[in-house]
């Protein structure tokens, strides 16, 4: 009874403090209460290491890789197996090792079966680095280091311990639903918000803002659930991270085992990695390949096509990233400096193919896409980027969008480009491709890629050509290199056969795999 009375008084005191918008001193009292709930302030400050074994799922392309751009589309997931996250609490270090494979059909057997090497990501204070299959360690960027410091904090013990540091700044104590929350600036300058359950005093969630090339500033929130005891410390058995973009569940992690203060390896960065400087980001090189009069193929991180009309230029695909798209746009303007670049055609909504959308909008380009993608693109372009300014954050402009349905013809005295809806593609709905009848050339994204091992939608290219009654000589893909249409059909035959063979091997082994069986393709 005495414990219950003390708890009630403490909660009442917190409630009074919250209503009065208290100072950081009161916020620190809340942090101490959270430490006590986790096992005691002295115990939390004495923790040296945490090792977590588990499994889970990641949202594919942050929710931008689904079949359609609809918020109601079923989520595509990347499965995580064999996850081991080791946190050297004492020295501010971390190692994350996991094996990922896609829980949906795609282009590489290793991505679907999880047979690829496990990725190893490391952090040592302000130094982030990766360890390759060959054991070599290479330093990562400062942006990656910041991201991994947030991941280091993304555990009840580490965030509470960081908040207990006298150098941490605790502000804005308030109530949010059934939690009391406080903003924290760590001694390293990282900003997060911690929510503490009003009843149990256990940390309920942590929230932070990070950059996203497609979405601007993104707010993430990880909930801690299923607390259990581990060597005198209460730790969660589940982590669930949600984004403020369409409430996408960004990551789900289920914990098999947590070991507190067990033996761990030395996670320090090698001396040569720590001494290495992070190379500055450089604009990607853009190779220009003339295709026909008024048509250029621009090879960068992904490939784009430039069309020259009588009084303007039109670009096909803002692929990959802001940097890549800006480099392609600058190259396009140097090819025909007398004519303005006014439009960009986006083949489909997947976040790699729309990775430069915000950059294109910042340049004032009109976006041409299938109508089913329009609302998503408007949403992407309307999101702010103030904490982590990108091209659109630095130069805000409203999106100009020209939606189309089945077919759109762009034509003047100098050029004709027909844009068609893609037929029968299980990888993407609402996809489009461009066709220049004068050159008998198709510009497309994800209909074919010379590097793919397998294809589950091989019929889509030939079905689209037949449906729209096109005569195609050249393929100008976003992925790969220019090929003749005959070469493309040969690539697709091989990739479809690879998918069929993979399904047969899985079936013969008495197993099952998503996407099987694959229908025979007709060419």
Write up this protein.
The protein has two domains: 267 residues, outer membrane lipoprotein receptor (LolB), chain A (Clam); 222 residues, Ribonuclease Z/Hydroxyacylglutathione hydrolase-like (Metallo-beta-lactamase, Chain A, 4-Layer Sandwich). The longest helix has 24 residues. The protein has 523 residues and is an alpha+beta fold. The strands form four sheets. Strands 6-5-4-3-2-1-15-14-11-10-9-8-7 form a 13-stranded antiparallel beta sheet.
- Termini gap: 79 Å
Name of the CATH first level of the largest domain: Mainly Beta
Mean pLDDT, nearest integer?
92
Looking at this structure, what is the CATH superfamily of the largest domain?
A: Lipoprotein localisation LolA/LolB/LppX
Strand order of the largest sheet: 6-5-4-3-2-1-15-14-11-10-9-8-7
Shape: globular
**Helical content band:** 25-40%
CATH architecture of the largest domain: Clam
The rounded Rg comes to 26 Å
Overall number of structural domains: 2
Helical segment tally?
13
* Beta-strand residue percentage: 25-35%
Query: How many strand segments?
Result: 28
Looking at CATH, which topology of the largest domain would you report? outer membrane lipoprotein receptor (LolB), chain A
- Segments where pLDDT lies below 50 for 5+ residues? 1-24
Largest sheet: 13 strands, antiparallel
Structural class: alpha+beta
């Amino acid at each position: 009874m005495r414990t219950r009375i003390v708890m009630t008084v403490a909660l009442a005191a917190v409630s009074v403090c919250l209503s009065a918008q208290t100072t950081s001193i009161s916020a620190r009292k809340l942090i101490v209460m959270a430490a006590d709930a986790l096992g005691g302030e002295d115990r939390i400050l004495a923790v040296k290491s945490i090792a977590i074994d588990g499994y889970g799922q990641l949202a594919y392309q942050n929710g931008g890789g689904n079949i359609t751009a609809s918020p109601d589309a079923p989520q595509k997931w990347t499965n995580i197996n064999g996850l081991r996250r080791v946190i050297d609490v004492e020295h501010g270090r971390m190692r994350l090792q996991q094996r990922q494979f896609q829980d949906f059909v795609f282009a590489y057997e290793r991505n679907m079966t999880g047979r690829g090497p496990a990725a190893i990501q490391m952090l040592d204070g302000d130094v982030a680095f990766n360890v390759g299959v060959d054991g070599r360690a290479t330093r990562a960027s400062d942006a990656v280091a910041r991201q991994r410091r947030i991941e280091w904090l993304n555990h009840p013990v580490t965030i509470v311990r960081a908040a207990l540091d006298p150098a941490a700044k605790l502000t804005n104590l308030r109530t949010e639903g059934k939690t009391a929350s406080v903003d924290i600036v760590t001694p390293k300058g990282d900003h997060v918000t911690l929510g503490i359950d009003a009843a149990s005093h256990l940390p309920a969630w942590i929230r932070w803002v990070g950059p996203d090339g497609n979405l601007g500033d993104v707010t993430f929130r990880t909930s801690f659930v299923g607390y259990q005891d581990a060597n005198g410390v209460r730790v969660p058995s589940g982590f669930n991270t949600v984004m403020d973009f369409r409430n996408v569940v960004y990551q789900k992690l289920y914990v098999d085992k947590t070991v507190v203060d067990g033996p761990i390896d030395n996670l320090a960065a090698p001396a040569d990695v720590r001494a290495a400087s992070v190379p500055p980001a450089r604009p990607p090189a853009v190779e220009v390949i003339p295709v026909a009069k008024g048509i250029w193929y621009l090879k960068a991180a992904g490939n784009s096509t430039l069309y020259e009309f009588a009084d303007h230029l039109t670009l096909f695909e803002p692929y990959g990233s802001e940097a890549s798209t800006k480099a392609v746009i600058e190259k396009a303007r140097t090819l025909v400096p007398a004519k303005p670049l006014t439009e960009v055609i986006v083949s489909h909504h997947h976040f790699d193919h729309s990775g430069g959308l915000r950059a294109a909008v910042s340049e004032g380009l009109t976006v041409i896409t299938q109508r089913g993608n329009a609302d998503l693109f408007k949403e992407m372009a309307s999101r702010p980027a103030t904490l982590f300014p990108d091209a659109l954050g630095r130069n805000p402009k409203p999106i100009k969008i020209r939606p189309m349905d089945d077919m759109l013809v762009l034509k003047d005295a100098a050029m004709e480009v027909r844009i068609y809806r893609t037929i029968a593609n299980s990888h993407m709905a609402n996809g489009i491709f461009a066709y220049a009848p004068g050159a008998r050339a198709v510009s497309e994204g994800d209909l074919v890629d010379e590097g793919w091992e397998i294809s589950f939608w091989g019929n889509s290219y030939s079905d689209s050509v037949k449906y729209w009654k096109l005569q195609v000589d050249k393929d100008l893909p976003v992925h790969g290199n220019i090929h003749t249409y005959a070469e493309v059909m040969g690539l697709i035959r091989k990739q479809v056969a690879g998918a069929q063979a993979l399904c047969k091997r899985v079936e013969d082994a008495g197993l099952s795999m998503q996407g099987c069986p694959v229908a025979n393709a007709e060419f």
